Amino acid sequence: MIKTELTGIERELVLKYLEDGNVPVTVTAVSSKTTGKQDESAQSAVFPVAIKPSNMKLLDKGVILLENPKQAINSFAGKRVKVEFYFNKLGLSFITDMKRVSSGLAIVIPETISRIGDSEVPYDHKFEAVLFYSCGNNRNVHIDCLPEPSYTLFSKPVWSDIVSENSVKAKEYLERFVKDAKKQNTAGNGLYLIPACRYLTEKCKAVKAVEGRADPLKILYVDSDCILFGQENDSVQLISGTEYALKMSFPIADGPIDKREVFVTCLVQSFYTGDNERKCTKCIYTSVKEEDKRFIYEMVNKNILK
Questions:
Q1: Same structural domain for residues 253 and 145?
Q2: Residue where a domain stops, chosen among 64, 90, 115
């Protein structure tokens, strides 16, 4: 078993790093447990709040002072919080109380600081895709794309897929996206906007196990005209108006082969962003064989195109 808690010497190095370095941190409210264990799960209804190094001062004995905190930070006063940051590109976290003091807010760094572990994501690889593009010198680069767990691709998205606590913010996003799509004449059937709003209103992990690591793009929606990707950082950058080659692998039930590969070219048409680090990208197909288009339609709609 990999030990996640830092040793005493490692903790001292981290404290020195926080004192000397330009280290932003993120803060998230957690459950009101008082055990102090590192596995307490975040229960806040708000997104993690980033704190700039210029707003922090590390005092003696491992106390972080937040002077003149903004309203978003003030909302954590008196609450138990998870503090996350990167140390030499490794994600670290600790759980403590946010206390109000005469000069602002204070965070006492506990004895236990833990490494952030990699999340075990149960991907279903029955459907997957790969984006290809040329980067010069006759080299082709590929980007893996995997379905986002809990998103059902081959069914019609419905508004009830969005949890009730996120519905108000999701409606705000939807109204903005529909307005922009009408201006740009890019709406299409509009169904992809439901998973886009859902994804942008869900919490993302503020700090990961390793900083800047490129993760696969997450497939949120697919039909016979477009595909929607989600991502939590800019480690993969798709360029607006650029065409990419796309290979999609569809599962085949009860057939002589277990999957069918469809090759198309697609154009990055629209980006969707919200109040956190997440971003959605809609790509429309610009070249697809008629039999492949029919196949995708049937896979998604479960009926025969007339």
A1: yes
A2: 115
**pLDDT value of residue 146:** 92
For the stretch 228-261, pLDDT in tens is 999 987 778 899 999 999 999 998 877 677 889 9
Q: 201 and 63 in one domain?
A: no
Return d(Cα 229, Cα 272) in angstroms, integer. Answer: 10
Domain that holds residue 225: 128-301
Q: What is the pTM of this model?
A: 0.69
Q: Are residues 266 and 203 in the same domain?
A: yes
- pLDDT at residue number 43: 39
| CATH number for 13 | 2.30.110
Q: Which residue has the tokens 């691709």?
A: 153
Q: What is the DSSP string of the chain?
A: ----BPPHHHHHHHHHHHHHS---EEEEEB-S--S--TTPPB--SS--EEE-GGGEEEETTTEEEEES--HHHHTTTTSEEEEEEEETTEEEEEEEEEEEETTEEEEE--S--EEPPPP-----TTSEEEEEEE-STT-EEEEEEEEPTT--TTS---GGGS-GGGHHHHHHHHHHHHHHHHHHT--TT-TTHHHHHHHHHS---SS-SBTTPPPPEEEEEE-SSEEEEEESSSSS---TT-EEEEEEEEE-TTSSSSEEEEEEEEEEEEEEE-SSS-EEEEEEEEE--HHHHHHHHHHHHSS---
pLDDT in tens, 68-84: 777 778 888 888 999 99
- Residues in the chain predicted with pLDDT less than 70, given as ranges, are 1-3, 21, 31-47, 118-125, 134-140, 205-214, 255, 302-306
Q: Which two tokens stand for residue 194?
A: 């439901």
pLDDT score, position 53: 84
